Amino acid sequence: MDINAIIQTLSVMALPLLLGVTLHEAGHAYAAYYLGDDTAAKAGRLSLNPLVHIDPMGTIVMPGFLLLMGAPFLFGYAKPVPVNVGRLRNPRRDDIIVSLAGPAGNIIVAIVGAIALKISTSMGYGAEDWIVLTSYYTVMFNCLLAVFNLLPIPPLDGGRVLQALLPYNQAQALGQVERFGFFIVIGIIVFIPAVVKVPLGILMGLILSIVGV
C-alpha cells in the first residue's frame, strides 16, 4: 500500500474507529458514575476526550498493523474503564446496565453515522466522497464494536451481562473462562467468523433501514 492510499484510508477509517472506541468506554464510565461508582471519574476517564481512553496497543498499534497489511477494514479497542461493582447502588442490576452502556453508545453513534450518510447522499455526494465513506465506516465500525463486545464471553461486555444473570455458582464458573477469553474470541473470528458477521449484517441493515438509507 502506497503512502497516498494509507493517508486516504486513515482519513476515512481512523476517525470513525477512534470515535467508536472512545464512546464505548465513555459509555461505561458515565453509566457507572450515575449509578454510584466514581472509580472511572477519579481515574480521569469520565470524559469524551479520546486521549484519556487511548490504549497504545489497541488504539494505535493494532489498527496501524492492519492498515499496513492492507486489511479491508481497521479494528481496535481502548483502555477498559475501571468499574468497582461493589460501589454500584444495585450491584447485580447496575453491572448489567454499565456493561450494556458501551455497546449502546456504539449503536447511538452508528445511528448518527447513518443519518449523516443519508444526508450526504441526498445532497448528491457519491460513494467515493470522503463524507460518504466516513459516514459509512462510522456505521460499520460502531455496529462491529457493539456486536463484538456483546459476545457472551468474559471479559467482553456480553460475558459480564451473562455472569450477572446467572446464579452465583454458574457465574463463578463462567468467570474462570476469562483467562482464556482472548483466545476464544480469536478462535471465533478465525474459524467461525459468521458468529460476528451475521449479527453485524443484521444490525447494520436494521439501522440503515430505520434511518431510510
Mean pLDDT: 89
Number of helices: 9
Termini gap:
31 Å
The ordered H/E elements are HHHHHHHHH
> Major sheet, described briefly?
none
Roughly what fraction of the amino acids lie in strands? Answer: under 5%
Proportion of helical residues: 55-70%
Question: What's the gyration radius in Å?
Answer: 18 Å
- Number of E-type strands: 0
Estimated structural class: mainly alpha
Low-confidence region ranges: none
What would you call the shape? globular
Number of domains: 1
Protein traits:
mainly alpha; 9 helices; 69% helix; globular
Q: What this model shows, in words?
A:
- With 213 residues, the protein is mainly α.
- The chain has one domain (3-211).
- Helix content is 69%, strand content 0%.
- The chain contains nine helices and no strands.
- It has helices spanning 3-34, 39-42, 56-68, 91-122, 130-149, 157-165, 168-175, 181-191, 194-211.
- The two termini are 31 Å apart.
Topology:
Elements: H1 3-34, H2 39-42, H3 56-68, H4 91-122, H5 130-149, H6 157-165, H7 168-175, H8 181-191, H9 194-211
Helix pairs in contact: 1-3, 1-4, 1-5, 4-5, 4-6, 4-9, 5-9, 6-7
Brief description of this entry?
The chain has 213 residues and is mainly alpha-helical.
